Amino acid sequence: MGPGFCGRVALHELDKGLTLSRSHWGGPMSAVRTDRMAARTPDGSRMLFAVQVAGRGRMVQRDRFVELAAGSGILIEASSPSKWVSQTETRWLTLRFSREQLLLRDVEITEACARRMDPAAPAMQMLAAYLGQLFEVAGGLTAPQRLDAGRAAIDLLAMALRGVVPSVPGCDGSRVLLDMMRRYVRAHSADPCLRVEELARRHNVSVSHVYTLFERIGTTPGAYLREQRLLAAQVMLSDPRCARLATPDIASVVGFVERRTFERAFRRQYGMTPGDWRRQHCHSGSAPPAVREEVSLRDDANER
Protein backbone atom coordinates (compact mmCIF):
# COMPACT_ATOMS: atom_id res chain seq x y z
CA MET A 1 0.00 0.00 0.00
CA GLY A 2 1.40 3.35 -1.01
CA PRO A 3 1.73 6.64 0.91
CA GLY A 4 -1.57 8.27 1.67
CA PHE A 5 -3.50 5.07 1.10
CA CYS A 6 -6.91 5.03 2.76
CA GLY A 7 -9.82 2.64 2.87
CA ARG A 8 -13.25 2.11 4.37
CA VAL A 9 -15.20 -1.07 5.09
CA ALA A 10 -18.83 -1.38 6.24
CA LEU A 11 -20.33 -4.76 7.10
CA HIS A 12 -23.73 -6.36 7.69
CA GLU A 13 -24.00 -9.71 9.48
CA LEU A 14 -26.79 -11.68 7.79
CA ASP A 15 -26.34 -14.80 9.92
CA LYS A 16 -23.60 -16.52 11.91
CA GLY A 17 -20.70 -16.83 9.47
CA LEU A 18 -22.64 -15.10 6.66
CA THR A 19 -21.75 -11.45 6.06
CA LEU A 20 -22.02 -8.85 3.32
CA SER A 21 -19.52 -5.98 3.25
CA ARG A 22 -18.83 -2.94 1.11
CA SER A 23 -15.26 -1.64 0.83
CA HIS A 24 -13.65 1.40 -0.77
CA TRP A 25 -9.89 1.51 -1.33
CA GLY A 26 -8.56 4.97 -2.16
CA GLY A 27 -5.55 4.20 -4.31
CA PRO A 28 -3.04 1.63 -5.60
CA MET A 29 -2.60 -1.36 -3.34
CA SER A 30 -1.30 -4.91 -3.17
CA ALA A 31 -2.60 -7.60 -0.81
CA VAL A 32 -0.86 -10.96 -0.42
CA ARG A 33 -2.12 -14.02 1.43
CA THR A 34 0.88 -16.27 1.98
CA ASP A 35 0.91 -20.04 2.44
CA ARG A 36 1.46 -19.53 6.14
CA MET A 37 -1.42 -17.07 6.47
CA ALA A 38 -3.75 -19.36 4.51
CA ALA A 39 -2.81 -22.34 6.70
CA ARG A 40 -3.73 -20.35 9.79
CA THR A 41 -7.24 -19.53 8.55
CA PRO A 42 -9.54 -20.41 11.51
CA ASP A 43 -12.27 -21.82 9.29
CA GLY A 44 -10.90 -23.73 6.31
CA SER A 45 -14.30 -23.78 4.62
CA ARG A 46 -14.57 -19.97 4.46
CA MET A 47 -15.37 -18.62 0.99
CA LEU A 48 -15.54 -15.09 -0.37
CA PHE A 49 -17.44 -13.90 -3.40
CA ALA A 50 -16.43 -10.40 -4.48
CA VAL A 51 -18.02 -8.05 -7.01
CA GLN A 52 -15.74 -5.27 -8.23
CA VAL A 53 -18.11 -2.30 -8.28
CA ALA A 54 -15.52 0.19 -9.58
CA GLY A 55 -11.87 0.22 -10.63
CA ARG A 56 -9.57 -2.44 -12.06
CA GLY A 57 -7.47 -5.14 -10.44
CA ARG A 58 -5.72 -8.49 -10.82
CA MET A 59 -6.09 -11.63 -8.74
CA VAL A 60 -3.88 -14.72 -8.61
CA GLN A 61 -4.97 -17.91 -6.83
CA ARG A 62 -4.35 -21.60 -7.59
CA ASP A 63 -2.05 -20.51 -10.47
CA ARG A 64 -4.97 -18.74 -12.13
CA PHE A 65 -4.43 -15.14 -13.20
CA VAL A 66 -7.60 -13.06 -13.47
CA GLU A 67 -8.08 -9.50 -14.75
CA LEU A 68 -11.00 -7.79 -13.03
CA ALA A 69 -12.96 -4.73 -14.08
CA ALA A 70 -16.13 -3.00 -12.91
CA GLY A 71 -18.99 -5.49 -12.72
CA SER A 72 -16.75 -8.57 -12.61
CA GLY A 73 -17.18 -11.21 -9.94
CA ILE A 74 -14.77 -13.74 -8.48
CA LEU A 75 -15.02 -16.63 -6.02
CA ILE A 76 -12.10 -16.94 -3.59
CA GLU A 77 -11.02 -19.60 -1.09
CA ALA A 78 -9.84 -18.04 2.18
CA SER A 79 -7.69 -21.10 2.90
CA SER A 80 -5.65 -20.83 -0.33
CA PRO A 81 -2.74 -18.42 -0.93
CA SER A 82 -3.62 -15.48 -3.16
CA LYS A 83 -2.45 -12.08 -4.37
CA TRP A 84 -4.51 -9.10 -5.41
CA VAL A 85 -3.10 -5.95 -7.04
CA SER A 86 -4.79 -2.73 -8.11
CA GLN A 87 -3.40 0.45 -9.60
CA THR A 88 -6.65 2.40 -9.26
CA GLU A 89 -9.24 3.39 -6.70
CA THR A 90 -11.54 0.38 -6.20
CA ARG A 91 -14.87 -0.46 -4.59
CA TRP A 92 -16.09 -3.96 -3.72
CA LEU A 93 -19.10 -5.84 -2.46
CA THR A 94 -18.04 -9.04 -0.70
CA LEU A 95 -20.19 -11.94 0.47
CA ARG A 96 -18.53 -14.22 3.04
CA PHE A 97 -19.97 -17.64 3.75
CA SER A 98 -19.12 -21.29 4.42
CA ARG A 99 -18.37 -23.65 1.57
CA GLU A 100 -21.14 -26.05 2.58
CA GLN A 101 -23.76 -23.32 2.13
CA LEU A 102 -23.15 -23.26 -1.62
CA LEU A 103 -25.29 -25.87 -3.40
CA LEU A 104 -22.59 -27.11 -5.75
CA ARG A 105 -20.43 -30.19 -5.60
CA ASP A 106 -17.04 -29.71 -3.93
CA VAL A 107 -15.15 -30.27 -7.17
CA GLU A 108 -17.34 -27.71 -8.93
CA ILE A 109 -16.63 -25.10 -6.25
CA THR A 110 -12.90 -25.70 -6.55
CA GLU A 111 -13.07 -25.37 -10.33
CA ALA A 112 -15.10 -22.14 -10.05
CA CYS A 113 -12.55 -20.42 -7.78
CA ALA A 114 -10.38 -17.65 -9.23
CA ARG A 115 -12.29 -17.50 -12.50
CA ARG A 116 -13.63 -14.18 -13.78
CA MET A 117 -17.40 -13.94 -13.95
CA ASP A 118 -18.47 -11.93 -16.99
CA PRO A 119 -20.21 -8.68 -15.98
CA ALA A 120 -22.34 -8.92 -19.14
CA ALA A 121 -23.84 -12.28 -18.13
CA PRO A 122 -27.50 -11.85 -17.03
CA ALA A 123 -27.04 -14.05 -13.93
CA MET A 124 -24.00 -11.99 -12.87
CA GLN A 125 -25.87 -8.72 -13.42
CA MET A 126 -28.80 -9.98 -11.35
CA LEU A 127 -26.49 -11.14 -8.55
CA ALA A 128 -24.53 -7.87 -8.45
CA ALA A 129 -27.74 -5.81 -8.38
CA TYR A 130 -29.20 -8.00 -5.62
CA LEU A 131 -26.09 -7.72 -3.42
CA GLY A 132 -26.02 -3.95 -3.89
CA GLN A 133 -29.67 -3.60 -2.94
CA LEU A 134 -29.33 -6.01 -0.02
CA PHE A 135 -26.47 -3.98 1.42
CA GLU A 136 -28.60 -0.84 1.32
CA VAL A 137 -31.62 -2.37 3.10
CA ALA A 138 -30.01 -4.96 5.40
CA GLY A 139 -29.86 -2.58 8.35
CA GLY A 140 -33.65 -2.30 8.41
CA LEU A 141 -34.38 -6.04 8.15
CA THR A 142 -35.26 -8.36 10.99
CA ALA A 143 -32.91 -11.26 11.81
CA PRO A 144 -35.11 -13.84 9.96
CA GLN A 145 -35.36 -11.50 6.96
CA ARG A 146 -31.58 -11.05 6.86
CA LEU A 147 -31.15 -14.82 6.99
CA ASP A 148 -33.62 -15.37 4.12
CA ALA A 149 -31.97 -12.62 2.10
CA GLY A 150 -28.52 -14.11 2.68
CA ARG A 151 -29.66 -17.56 1.61
CA ALA A 152 -31.24 -16.07 -1.50
CA ALA A 153 -27.91 -14.39 -2.31
CA ILE A 154 -26.11 -17.74 -2.07
CA ASP A 155 -28.75 -19.35 -4.29
CA LEU A 156 -28.24 -16.60 -6.90
CA LEU A 157 -24.47 -17.11 -6.63
CA ALA A 158 -24.85 -20.84 -7.32
CA MET A 159 -26.91 -20.00 -10.42
CA ALA A 160 -24.30 -17.53 -11.65
CA LEU A 161 -21.40 -19.91 -10.99
CA ARG A 162 -22.91 -22.62 -13.15
CA GLY A 163 -22.00 -20.42 -16.10
CA VAL A 164 -18.27 -20.37 -15.24
CA VAL A 165 -17.71 -23.91 -13.93
CA PRO A 166 -15.89 -25.99 -16.57
CA SER A 167 -17.36 -29.35 -17.51
CA VAL A 168 -16.85 -31.68 -14.56
CA PRO A 169 -17.48 -35.45 -14.84
CA GLY A 170 -20.76 -36.30 -13.13
CA CYS A 171 -21.84 -32.65 -12.91
CA ASP A 172 -25.59 -32.24 -13.23
CA GLY A 173 -26.63 -28.60 -13.28
CA SER A 174 -30.30 -29.55 -13.36
CA ARG A 175 -29.94 -31.46 -10.10
CA VAL A 176 -28.35 -28.41 -8.47
CA LEU A 177 -31.17 -26.16 -9.70
CA LEU A 178 -33.80 -28.63 -8.48
CA ASP A 179 -32.13 -28.80 -5.05
CA MET A 180 -32.19 -25.01 -4.88
CA MET A 181 -35.88 -24.90 -5.74
CA ARG A 182 -36.77 -27.56 -3.19
CA ARG A 183 -34.86 -25.69 -0.50
CA TYR A 184 -36.64 -22.48 -1.44
CA VAL A 185 -40.05 -24.19 -1.24
CA ARG A 186 -39.24 -25.66 2.19
CA ALA A 187 -38.13 -22.26 3.47
CA HIS A 188 -41.17 -20.38 2.13
CA SER A 189 -43.97 -22.97 2.20
CA ALA A 190 -45.89 -20.91 4.79
CA ASP A 191 -46.33 -18.10 2.27
CA PRO A 192 -49.88 -18.55 0.87
CA CYS A 193 -48.89 -16.55 -2.22
CA LEU A 194 -46.06 -18.88 -3.25
CA ARG A 195 -46.70 -20.13 -6.79
CA VAL A 196 -44.74 -21.92 -9.48
CA GLU A 197 -44.41 -18.59 -11.30
CA GLU A 198 -42.47 -17.19 -8.33
CA LEU A 199 -40.17 -20.23 -8.32
CA ALA A 200 -39.48 -19.73 -12.02
CA ARG A 201 -38.90 -15.98 -11.67
CA ARG A 202 -36.59 -16.31 -8.66
CA HIS A 203 -34.46 -19.00 -10.33
CA ASN A 204 -34.42 -17.33 -13.77
CA VAL A 205 -36.06 -20.18 -15.69
CA SER A 206 -39.39 -20.76 -17.44
CA VAL A 207 -42.46 -22.20 -15.71
CA SER A 208 -42.35 -25.22 -18.02
CA HIS A 209 -38.74 -25.90 -17.00
CA VAL A 210 -39.75 -25.88 -13.33
CA TYR A 211 -42.32 -28.60 -14.09
CA THR A 212 -39.71 -30.57 -16.04
CA LEU A 213 -37.28 -30.51 -13.11
CA PHE A 214 -39.87 -31.66 -10.56
CA GLU A 215 -40.86 -34.52 -12.87
CA ARG A 216 -37.41 -35.95 -12.08
CA ILE A 217 -38.61 -36.76 -8.57
CA GLY A 218 -42.04 -37.92 -9.71
CA THR A 219 -44.09 -34.92 -8.63
CA THR A 220 -45.16 -31.40 -9.60
CA PRO A 221 -44.16 -28.09 -7.98
CA GLY A 222 -47.68 -27.68 -6.59
CA ALA A 223 -47.76 -31.19 -5.11
CA TYR A 224 -44.32 -30.73 -3.54
CA LEU A 225 -45.40 -27.43 -1.98
CA ARG A 226 -48.60 -29.00 -0.67
CA GLU A 227 -46.63 -31.88 0.85
CA GLN A 228 -44.30 -29.49 2.67
CA ARG A 229 -47.27 -27.57 4.08
CA LEU A 230 -48.91 -30.79 5.22
CA LEU A 231 -45.68 -31.88 6.88
CA ALA A 232 -45.54 -28.58 8.77
CA ALA A 233 -49.16 -29.02 9.84
CA GLN A 234 -48.46 -32.59 10.94
CA VAL A 235 -45.62 -31.35 13.14
CA MET A 236 -47.81 -28.70 14.75
CA LEU A 237 -50.70 -31.09 15.32
CA SER A 238 -48.30 -33.47 17.08
CA ASP A 239 -46.77 -30.77 19.29
CA PRO A 240 -48.42 -30.30 22.71
CA ARG A 241 -47.25 -26.69 22.66
CA CYS A 242 -49.67 -26.07 19.77
CA ALA A 243 -52.60 -27.82 21.43
CA ARG A 244 -54.52 -24.57 21.92
CA LEU A 245 -54.35 -23.69 18.24
CA ALA A 246 -57.53 -24.57 16.34
CA THR A 247 -57.27 -26.47 13.08
CA PRO A 248 -58.09 -23.41 10.93
CA ASP A 249 -55.31 -21.50 12.68
CA ILE A 250 -52.79 -24.23 11.93
CA ALA A 251 -53.97 -24.35 8.32
CA SER A 252 -53.35 -20.62 8.00
CA VAL A 253 -49.93 -20.76 9.68
CA VAL A 254 -48.62 -23.41 7.27
CA GLY A 255 -49.87 -21.62 4.14
CA PHE A 256 -53.37 -22.93 3.40
CA VAL A 257 -55.91 -20.20 2.67
CA GLU A 258 -59.04 -22.37 2.96
CA ARG A 259 -59.66 -24.67 5.94
CA ARG A 260 -61.66 -27.15 3.81
CA THR A 261 -58.86 -27.38 1.26
CA PHE A 262 -56.43 -28.14 4.08
CA GLU A 263 -58.67 -30.81 5.64
CA ARG A 264 -59.30 -32.55 2.30
CA ALA A 265 -55.59 -32.55 1.46
CA PHE A 266 -54.65 -33.82 4.93
CA ARG A 267 -57.17 -36.69 4.78
CA ARG A 268 -56.03 -37.63 1.29
CA GLN A 269 -52.36 -37.63 2.36
CA TYR A 270 -52.63 -39.35 5.76
CA GLY A 271 -55.95 -41.20 5.68
CA MET A 272 -57.45 -39.31 8.63
CA THR A 273 -58.63 -35.85 9.58
CA PRO A 274 -56.33 -33.32 11.25
CA GLY A 275 -58.36 -33.75 14.45
CA ASP A 276 -57.90 -37.52 14.43
CA TRP A 277 -54.17 -37.12 13.86
CA ARG A 278 -53.93 -34.72 16.79
CA ARG A 279 -55.82 -37.10 19.11
CA GLN A 280 -53.50 -39.98 18.21
CA HIS A 281 -50.16 -38.16 18.29
CA CYS A 282 -50.32 -34.95 20.31
CA HIS A 283 -49.78 -36.70 23.65
CA SER A 284 -46.25 -37.85 22.75
CA GLY A 285 -44.89 -35.10 20.56
CA SER A 286 -42.44 -37.64 19.15
CA ALA A 287 -43.88 -38.05 15.67
CA PRO A 288 -42.64 -34.93 13.84
CA PRO A 289 -38.89 -35.72 13.62
CA ALA A 290 -39.58 -39.27 12.45
CA VAL A 291 -42.10 -38.07 9.86
CA ARG A 292 -39.67 -35.52 8.45
CA GLU A 293 -36.92 -38.13 8.28
CA GLU A 294 -39.15 -40.60 6.43
CA VAL A 295 -40.10 -38.01 3.81
CA SER A 296 -36.47 -36.98 3.33
CA LEU A 297 -35.47 -40.62 2.84
CA ARG A 298 -38.36 -41.16 0.43
CA ASP A 299 -37.33 -38.14 -1.65
CA ASP A 300 -33.75 -39.37 -1.83
CA ALA A 301 -34.91 -42.84 -2.83
CA ASN A 302 -37.06 -41.40 -5.63
CA GLU A 303 -34.11 -39.50 -7.01
CA ARG A 304 -32.00 -42.58 -7.13
From TrEMBL:
<dbReference type="Pfam" id="PF14525">
    <property type="entry name" value="AraC_binding_2"/>
</dbReference>
<keyword id="KW-0238">DNA-binding</keyword>
<dbReference type="InterPro" id="IPR050204">
    <property type="entry name" value="AraC_XylS_family_regulators"/>
</dbReference>
<dbReference type="InterPro" id="IPR035418">
    <property type="entry name" value="AraC-bd_2"/>
</dbReference>
<keyword id="KW-0805">Transcription regulation</keyword>
<feature type="domain" description="HTH araC/xylS-type">
    <location>
        <begin position="179"/>
        <end position="280"/>
    </location>
</feature>
<dbReference type="InterPro" id="IPR018060">
    <property type="entry name" value="HTH_AraC"/>
</dbReference>
<feature type="region of interest" description="Disordered">
    <location>
        <begin position="277"/>
        <end position="304"/>
    </location>
</feature>
<dbReference type="Pfam" id="PF12833">
    <property type="entry name" value="HTH_18"/>
</dbReference>
<dbReference type="InterPro" id="IPR009057">
    <property type="entry name" value="Homeodomain-like_sf"/>
</dbReference>
<keyword id="KW-0804">Transcription</keyword>
<protein>
    <submittedName>
        <fullName>Helix-turn-helix domain-containing protein</fullName>
    </submittedName>
</protein>
<feature type="compositionally biased region" description="Basic and acidic residues">
    <location>
        <begin position="291"/>
        <end position="304"/>
    </location>
</feature>
